[in-house]
Amino acid sequence: MASELTYALITPYSLLKSRTGGILGRLLSLTNLEFIGATMFAPSDAFVDKYCLTIEEQNIKPAWKKVMINYVNSNFRKENKFGITNRTVLLLFKGSNAIVKMKDDVIGPITSFQGHTIRGSFGDYVESSNGTTEYFEPAVITSADPITNNKQLELFAEYLPGDGGVLEDVIQYSEGARPETTLVILKPFEEQSPLPGNIIDMFSRAGLYIVGIKLLRMSIAQAEEFYGPLIDIFREKLKPKPEKIAEKLKDCFKSLFTFEVPGDILSGQAEQLSEQLKNINAMHEFNKIIQYMTGLDPEKTDAAGKRMPGTTRCLALLYQGPDAISKIRNILGPTDSKKGEPGKVRRIYGEDIMKNAAHASDSTENAERERKIIGLWDNSGPCELKGLIENYLQKI
Asked: pLDDT (tens digit, 9 = 90+) per residue, 38-65?
């Protein structure tokens, strides 16, 4: 069967209730579909009007059709019954029989009460004795069939440039509040791993708003610029200690000569070697980070290859709110995962200093620099998901 592209749209209410992590973890782990894209999406009224028309055209029970249209009309507009932001998270998945797998196996029917589906765990459908719907919250929206799927994908492609991307200006804060936006990168994760969802669930403790999200395949060029400031830190922090070098030289010379090499010669050579090796050692450690984050060896990749997307997948998020930087870093824990307190993200999910689960900006200045490098600063660049959708629709 040919590969299909489909979507999952996490609802505004799910974001408000901090269910995003749990839902994402299910979406990633319950199917063998390839996760290929993510963005924030705040639907305009024009989008909502057209989206409701695609539901009207579906071949489903009239009662369910009415429920879904009423829900989208009531919850997805900027002016809605809850008075909340209409932020959603749009996720794209690709694979064989993707539409059915997403709808039936992962998300589940709108009346589901079975906990193994997303709607069974995070959604609600309450029907009165006379058959009318009392309450409905689907948690996630997706397409009902291949024809509707493609119509809705086409709508997303049309409206993503205006309605999607970084949504820093949609949250209303109380007077006097000074919100800041920080960047988090969930480091490389495997296919069907619930890890990104689990970590997002932990960050929800901070009471912050997600205003940006992007599936990131970092290129070597991006990674080198992103982690460039570490080189100078590594030069001094990882500089070989002269006394250690002197000990190694002494041991080596014992096997080469029948006499003992004078200590002043050893110490002099050790000082020189320490200075000469600090740059090599720093670059060696730096390249290990670059290879981990991109999946590519920077020493074996030419200039053109360094600008191509890497082979590993990371998930970048923007969190916004008062004291966002310190709140996120407190939940994250120290760089060395082994030194973190119990309950911190890196203590639970990190392996070592490099494979420590996630990165978080340490200042507003660094957040700005890092966001610009990975293309999550504003909405002025090309819309990646629009391109993915259009390429797919052109081929079917």
From this structure: 999 999 999 999 999 999 998 888 888 8
Q: At what angle do helices 45-56 and 146-163 cross, to 10 degrees?
A: 180
Structure tokens at 359: 């990165």
Identify the pLDDT of residue 272. Answer: 67
- CA–CA gap between residue 120 and residue 116 (Å, rounded): 7
- Delimit the domains of the chain by residue range: 3-218+311-395, 224-306
Contact 275, 241 (CB under 8 A): no
Q: Per residue, what are the HEC states of 81-113?
A: CCCCCCCEEEEEEEEECHHHHHHHHHHCCCCCC
Query: With 70 as the cut, is the pLDDT of residue 74 above it?
Result: yes
Q: Which positions are annotated as active-site residues?
A: 359
> CA gyration radius for the chain?
26
Contact in structure between 240 and 285 (CB atoms under 8 Å): no
According to the model, what pLDDT value does residue 257 have?
67
Neighbouring C-alpha atoms within 13 Å toward the C-beta of 110 = 22
Give the DSSP letter string of 266-319: HHHHHHHHHHHHHHHHHHHHHHHHHHHHHSS-GGG--HHHHTS--SS-EEEEEE
Give 268-324 pLDDT, tens digit per residue: 665 666 666 777 878 989 999 999 999 999 999 999 999 999 999 999 999 999 999
Interval 251-268: pLDDT, tens? 666 667 666 756 666 566
CA atoms within 13 A on the CB side of 380: 3
Query: In this structure, which CATH number among 3.30.565.10, 3.30.70.141, 3.40.50.720, 3.30.930.10 belongs to the domain 3-218+311-395?
Result: 3.30.70.141
Question: Do 27 and 207 touch, CB atoms closer than 8 A?
Answer: no
HSE-CB at 365 with a 13 A cutoff on CA atoms is 0
